Amino acid sequence: MRVAIVGATGAVGHELLKVLEHSSLPIDELLLFASPRSAGSTLTFRDQALTVQVTPDGPIDADVVLASAGGSVSKALAPAWVAGGALVIDNSSAFRYDAGVPLVVPEVNGDAALAHQGIIANPNCTTAIAVVAVAPIHRAYGVRRMIVSTYQATSGAGAKGMDELLNETHKVLHGKEAGAEVFAHPIPFNVIPHIDAFQDNGYTKEEMKVVWETRKILGDDTLQISCTAVRIPTQRTHSEAITLDLERPATPAAVRELLAGSAGVEVRDAPEDKLYPMPLTASGKYDVEVGRIRESLVFDGGIDLFVAGDQLLKGAALNAVQIAEYLHAKGALKAKVRV
């Protein structure tokens, strides 16, 4: 099997390499592509140095293309990759809202991937982390309304965002004034309630992505969702405070038991022992941490919870690889015959 990564030198590209190192996919050859400025550099995969090539304008001779080079690149080139016989798993927002493109989180709606027509979309990182925790509750109790407040790491803006946090924090710690290029305002010792462009309804596009994508993944257009997305000065891992109004009342104990047996979830919920989800403990972890599970004081029978998930892993690279692994396990992803 031949796998290609487009956008291999970016933050998500580096995580894709790490995840693929331990993947169940039978990878015989890995191809790395990026922009011309990164071409010629080398990255290591399974103790082998691989040279990064310029992303071609036409087909890529691969069985799977893991695309993480941005929406404009995917929109322009993914059809050619598909025409060349590759399955494209795209990390950008280019195809998420296309009716004919599955939007997949394997633990939640893996079977949707089987209906692909050459392209499968990876959700927005915030959505992917949320639905891993919310989907089991929705199946068991029915979610009517969902209120989300996010605490999103600088990794959500890629390597440049992470670098800006470090560089500008260094300035502040040495008595200088912090600047801002990637973010709307200086990020050190600050929180910014502004991620992506503001829409006509007063919500940002990041906030609306949670609405649109959660409904699509859960297959429920009636679900009412409100989100406030906030950037915080951490390196990686997004956290989310989620309030759920349920059709059938749930107890915290029942939800803990349900989530403890749910794929992709690690329950960390012992406040008396100071055990709860945090970026510090969730970073680098495949599972999404869920804790602070308690009765809602607003919705009768509702539930409040706190979630932390690694944006670069479950929110991006890991989820993409898991989609490919799911299809391979189902016999729906096989290597082409090459002469």
Shape: globular
The amount of helix comes to: 25-40%
Whole-number mean pLDDT = 97
- Strand percentage: 15-25%
Low-confidence blocks of residues? none
SSE class: alpha/beta
**Main sheet properties:** 6 strands, parallel
Number of helices: 9
Number of DSSP strand runs: 14
Strand order of the largest sheet: 5-2-1-6-7-8
End-to-end Cα distance, whole Å, is: 13 Å
Q: Rg to the nearest angstrom? A: 20 Å
Instruction: Spell the H/E element sequence.
Output: EHEEEEEHEHEHEHHEEHEHEEH
Gist of the model:
The chain has nine helices and 14 strands.
Provide a descriptive summary of the structure in words.
With 339 residues, this protein is an alpha/beta fold. The chain has 9 helices and 14 strands. It has helices spanning 11-21, 71-83, 106-109, 125-141, 158-173, 205-218, 252-260, 279-282, 313-329, and strands at 2-6, 29-34, 42-45, 48-51, 53-54, 64-67, 87-90, 119-121, 143-151, 224-228, 238-246, 265-267, 288-295, 303-309. The longest helix is centred in the middle third of the chain and has 17 residues, at 125-141. The two termini are 13 Å apart. The model has no long low-confidence stretch (mean pLDDT 97).
Question: What order do the helices and strands come in, and which of them pair?
Answer:
Elements (H helix, E strand, L loop, with lengths): L1 E5 L4 H11 L7 E6 L7 E4 L2 E4 L1 E2 L9 E4 L3 H13 L3 E4 L15 H4 L9 E3 L3 H17 L1 E9 L6 H16 L31 H14 L5 E5 L9 E9 L5 H9 L4 E3 L11 H4 L5 E8 L7 E7 L3 H17 L10
Parallel strand pairs: 1-2, 1-6, 2-5, 6-7, 7-8, 9-10, 12-13
Antiparallel strand pairs: 3-4, 9-11, 11-14, 13-14
Helix pairs in contact: 1-9, 4-6, 4-9
